[in-house]
Amino acid sequence: MKVKIDTYNGIAKQLKEEYSKLSDFEILSLAIQIQRNQILENGLVVSSSDKYPSALEAIAIALGYEESNSVTITDILRNMVNK
């Protein structure tokens, strides 16, 4: 399931309220890391349909991956190379 990507300003305000002893630099660094993690989470999430694939799924679809009996990512990549 995709998560909402918050702005780093919104995240920083929330962190400032919850952790008032952190410096502005620490809060901004954490806010940017949290936003980056949200973006990565959305890119790597597995969707329930091909209508809105995640970034990783879209790459696999573009490369021609189809469902098979392959169990590991190594098997899948070997099958794609051998095609």
Largest beta-sheet details: none
Net shape? elongated
The average pLDDT score comes to 80
| Rg from alpha-carbon coordinates | 19 Å
Q: Strand portion, in percent?
A: under 5%
Walk me through this protein's architecture:
This protein has helices spanning 8-18, 24-44, 55-62, 73-82. The chain contains four helices and no strands. The two termini are 31 Å apart. It is an all-alpha fold. The mean pLDDT is 80.
Strand and helix layout:
Elements: H1 8-18, H2 24-44, H3 55-62, H4 73-82
Helix pairs in contact: 1-2
Question: What is the compact description of this entry?
Answer:
With 83 residues, the protein is an all-alpha fold.
Key terms:
60% helix, 83 residues
